[in-house]
Amino acid sequence: MIGRRQAMALGAGAVGLTLGLRGATSGQVRPAGGDASLRWAVDYGPATDPVLARRYQLLVLEPHHPRPIAPLRGEGAVLLGYVSLGEVEKRRPYFAALDRAGALGIANPDWPDARRADLRHPAWTATVVDQIVAQILQRGYDGIFIDTMDNAEAMERQDPLGAKDMVAAGARLIVAIRTRFPAIRIMLNRGYALLDRVAPSIDYVLGESMASRWNFATKRYDMLSDSDWQWQADRLRAAKAINPTLVVTTLDYWDMADRGPVAKLYARERAAGFAPYVSTLALDRLWPEPTG
Question: What is the rounded CA–CA span in Å between residue 177 and residue 199?
Fold first, then answer.
């Protein structure tokens, strides 16, 4: 799961037809030099620096901050609004209605203010497609960034009977979004249990914490093992084999004052053919890539 809540606490159909419809408008999202050349970033803070923001070709933002987004858009850039499909925070305006409809499950043990969404429930599908995504697009975004879809696999593993078919339902939900909005841009964070099923329906996939992470137990940033990195890389490359137009991005976490390791993280991911971004866990501001 992307470092979403830390940021908020700190201030906060037919596959061929689908691909054809997107192909007519996708020139600006396919990096000319391959995935590794894409300049992208994520910032959930309420005061995104417009000078820095306009440097990026792809930018993921929190769509509910009351601000204009036009000043943040660089020439030909794609702006995506965050949406959590695997769980719902109590502060969201649609929480109460979903709770009454029985579309919410248990609380996320790591984030008690969020309840896991029943991806199979028709009320959740309707809310996502007709309300959440539609409102993000109305605010001027080009598409959505999908988070927390790893919850589907976790729920099935924890409750095989009660959460039966949750992964398949998650895949159907993403396909339903694509069918309803065939020309928007869709970026998926991880979701490896369903990635092969939805690869033809998305434009970008994110490998979060590829080479580094925040360790909640030790309260420090850690480098991950080569085998951990390879596990994600294999799945990202398998998705791109299914959909060769898919752009593969990565997100690593580190102390941004420690410029040497940050530069090495960028270099490692780019050498693998991925489009990298490195930030702190808070994700509440933009951090330019170190130079020199």
Answer: 13
